[in-house]
């Protein structure tokens, strides 16, 4: 067995870097990493006012981040998933399943088309 710290990895560093570049309050970005039989799970927490920036219009920003971390995971033969947590502790549920309503407080702000 290797004696490595499973709470650290290139996937976690990547998500932390990308998210801190997107948000307005980078000091409140928290990324935790856990490994189990299903693969790697990265859990992301950001400030409430930055949730719209991370999710993006119709979930496109979150989807793009997830695609990129899966590519990083595939380079390391690992299945990597990203869980985005609401500031109140609930999981944002749109994953790969459905990009339905997730509290669109920022839905009218959009000049992020194209």
CATH architecture annotation of the domain at 10-85: 2-Layer Sandwich
Label the overall shape. globular
**Could you give the distance between the termini?**
47 Å
Assembly of the depicted chains: single chain
User: Spatial order of the strands in the main sheet?
Assistant: 1-2-3
Class from secondary-structure proportions: alpha+beta
- Given this structure, which CATH class of the domain at 10-85 is correct? Alpha Beta
CATH topology of the domain at 10-85: GMP Synthetase, Chain A, domain 3
* Rg calc: 14 Å
Largest sheet: 3 strands, mixed
Helix content: 25-40%
CATH superfamily of the domain at 10-85: K homology (KH) domain
Number of strands: 3
Mean pLDDT: 80
Tell me the strand percentage band: 15-25%
Q: What is the succession of H and E elements?
A: HEEHHE
H/I helix tally: 3
Low-confidence stretches: 95-114
Descriptive terms for the model:
single chain; 114 residues; alpha+beta; GMP Synthetase, Chain A, domain 3; three-stranded mixed sheet; 3 helices; globular
Account of the protein in words:
This protein is of the alpha+beta class and 114 residues long. It has a domain at 10-85: GMP Synthetase, Chain A, domain 3 (2-Layer Sandwich), CATH 3.30.300. It is 30% helix and 18% strand. It contains three helices and three strands; from the N terminus they run αββααβ. It has helices spanning 10-22, 51-55, 60-75; strands spanning 30-36, 39-45, 80-85. β1 (30-36) and β2 (39-45) form a beta hairpin. α1 packs antiparallel against α3 (60-75). The model is unreliable at 95-114 (pLDDT under 50).
């Amino acid at each position: 067995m290797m004696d490595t710290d499973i709470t650290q990895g290139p996937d976690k560093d990547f998500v932390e870097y990308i998210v801190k570049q997107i948000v307005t309050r980078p000091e409140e970005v928290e990324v935790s990493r856990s490994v189990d039989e299903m693969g790697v799970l990265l859990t992301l927490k950001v400030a409430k006012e930055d949730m719209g920036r991370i999710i993006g219009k119709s979930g496109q920003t979150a989807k793009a981040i997830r695609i990129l971390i899966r590519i990083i995971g595939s380079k390391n033969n690992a299945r990597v998933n990203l869980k985005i947590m609401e500031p109140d502790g609930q999981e944002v549920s749109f994953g790969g399943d459905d990009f339905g309503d997730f509290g669109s407080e920022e839905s009218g702000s959009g000049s992020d088309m194209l």
